[in-house]
Amino acid sequence: MLGKRFALQGVLVAALGLVTGTASADGISIPHAVHKLKNGMTVILSEDHSLPLVAVNVSYNVGSRFEANKRTGFAHLFEHLMFMGTKRAPTGAFDQWMEATGGSNNAWTSEDRTDYFDVGPKTILPLLLWLEADRLRDLGPLMTKKKVDAQREVVRNERRQTGENTPYGKVEFRLPELLYPEGHPYHHPVIGSHEDLEAATVEDVKEFFATWYDPANASLVVAGDFGQAETLDRIKSYFESIPSRGAPKDPKAPGFPEGASTLKSVVRETLEDEVELPKVIMAWQTPKHFGPGDGELDLLGNVLSGGKASRLYKALVYEQKIAQSVEAVQQSGTLGSRFVVGVLARPGVPLERIEKAIDAELQRVRTKPVSAEELTRVKNVVETDFVARLEGVQQRASILNMYQAEVGTPDYAERDLERYRKATADGIRAVAEQWLRPDARVILRVVPKGKKP
Amino acid sequence: MTFKYAKHALLLATVLSTACGGETAETKPPAVAPPKPAPATPPAAEADPLGPRPNVDAPPPFTPPAPTVFRTANGMTVWLLERHALPMVAIDVALPIGSTSDPAGEGGLAWATASMLDEGAGSRGALDLARAIDQLGATLGATAGTDRSGVSLFVLKRNLGPAFDLLADVVTRPRFDATEWKRVHELWTNDLKSRTREPRAVASVVASAALYGADQPYGHPVSGTLASAAKIDLARVKRFYQANWRPDQATLVAVGDVTRAELTAALDKAFAGWKAPAGPAAKVAPLAEPKGARGRLIVVDRADAPQSQITIVRPGPTVADPDAVVAGRANIALGGSFTSRLNLDLREEHGWTYGAGSRVSTMRQAGTIGLSSAVHTENTGDAVKAMLNDAEVYATKGLTPAEVDLTRMMARVDVVQAYEHVASTATLLGNDAALGLPATYEAEAALRRDSATKADLDRVAQRYFHPKDAIVVIVGPQAKVLSQLAQVEGLPKPEFFDAEGNPRAAK
Fold this sequence. Notes:
Chain A is of the alpha+beta class.
């Protein structure tokens, strides 16, 4: 029943082939076994005894793209409310009991998913599972206005701290609105608006819980130092009797074509912010996570901005000396991704000049394949990062659940890595040409206060 | 899928400038008013499917492994911790010189020197060196802190040999090319300008200057100020390197899938030509008593800011102080965990902030206790009052029994987690080596931390966490916060500083 067990060393053999262009045929896998509970909940167990630590990751298939009209920020607000207590574990007890026994926890929300994770000494596992089962079973109906109000204020301060009072932080609020049309599930920022956060009601919370926090919509990973048979028995006794209404229907992106950008022209805007140096951000809609071209765009991000020898750094920072810093990254999502280029100007350099310089480099990658040396370089960097991410129990748990959510199986590490191994110079060029179009993109500028033209 | 909104605020970024303290406990426990324990079994007619809350056994003991220590022919010390589970290696070349070695008025010299090491070394210029590192899939970086400088390398074992040669070039044969320096200096200056717009960084700069005095070793930021950076030229950087980057001062820490024989072979090949100059290494000037601790209120104006960044600092233990690790554990309960007194009070009870916490930074000649939070502007006065009060109650009444237990449990697992990644382990050991601590330090510290009693913790809390005479720094909209601060009992009259840590007249 427990199926495959791999030695941890097996996780990383792929890395051994990694030197100057010689791709290894060795496989890569994160040891794990998958079980399905009767109520539809997915359970993934990944055993590894190198340190006496254990991590639990519970992922719910709900993120900001699932939010109702005028309820932006709700999935994330709900994430905070998941710590607000039940009859068995009253408000505050989740954290208190966990920390009192050496554990810690956190959670995050994206456009697509909400992830809860706990980590602690190996002896804590029964408590972690009990607490996670308790809140999935009972939290929603016990919600009160007082609990909602408390976390509403915390979240509004999170919005201030991470966005409004941080240089360039407002970009994250505005970019999704410019990049995706109204009605698109990615149109609004994950954290939502103050106005909508203010408007959230207890009834909203209860309904959200009943709809999305269903065992059939959740996947539980345990990673680290534990015994599988005993743990599976415990998980069954805690979780299997939680009733399910069946997996809710994923709303996807109604009315918006998959595999095609909705941008048809250049969208421009300038923001003022409490910043020293002006910045230009360019963004495109690109293929979804694990879709054709997604891996190539990861590599292209590295070609453009990974290290001093990368295209944008070398041209704009090192040679022309017009930019302070550069970044280029594929941010992958379930419905679609976005490719974002951001460049900070040096003092006195007009943003027109920065944009022209970026465009020149983008034109090069659209028209001419990257060199063999560059391709090897970025593959090696990406592959090493890939392997390094598997080092900690918490990350391993998170990655297994990411595969489960995105491709329906946790057993995907090898195929994920294969995407980079198989990428070709012309494949990268073709993807850049197809997706990073000069005539269909967002160009957002951030300028110091009072400097808006 | 990229944007994560954490439930917990990251518990405090650095309160003071990048310290390299032995004990920077920004960790973890209970509260002013700990939540009432829930009934273990709710009164229900039906059997609870979950049953009672499971008991948690005490975690198994974990003693940090001590690295093997040996010396190379050229006088370099080596600390090796073998970890063969995964085919990766992390290296940290650690030197005991940091911003405390910066000459007066030349803050940032150690930092600028480290920054220049990978801008061309050995036979390669800056770009070729970067390409060569990337080609191996390796990461290599050089930087300085308050008491240390260092170069770190992370690489898959398969590529260790060639990566080791590049590391040796960077450490022992930097080119200090004038063209590269011009660019680095310009980028550096622009970053310093940008720092003036970041509330947390500004609070850190101002708090250090106020606590130690801007002209004192720990009083200036590691990366310097606009004024000091303007004074530093390449000749000074070269001289600083010659005087301080020498093998008899260096410890090379290696953690991961490498044996002593493999490491020795690599060292003999790559580092053999590195010789110490004649004469003894420079000594770090002794630090005067922190002179700032007089009880001050400092306001840095950030007009229209939606939040105030509050930072409260006072002197703490040095790294050599036996109380340092006990203070690190005690800090868990005041502000080093999600359920700490500060976070529960400011965030969970009042909703004034996304997070509040405290941190102990221990350095070779100094230490700092820092409390901080970013709060909604309209709650600035309330939050300052609450933070001062929480710290005072903690210092005078000590820890609750629950906090004593919780800090022990959290500190125990922290030690295990510190050894989960080869790169973080190498950094931890590199810090120890640079600070002159023995290779057995982590094991001894873990024991001392674990065995501290309530009396020990209470004594340390009283000695180090009382906010009387602490310095309160507010980075926020002056026009909105002054009247609130005037309402907080016991706060002195405000002084006004600029974002670079200089006093200025009120606006």
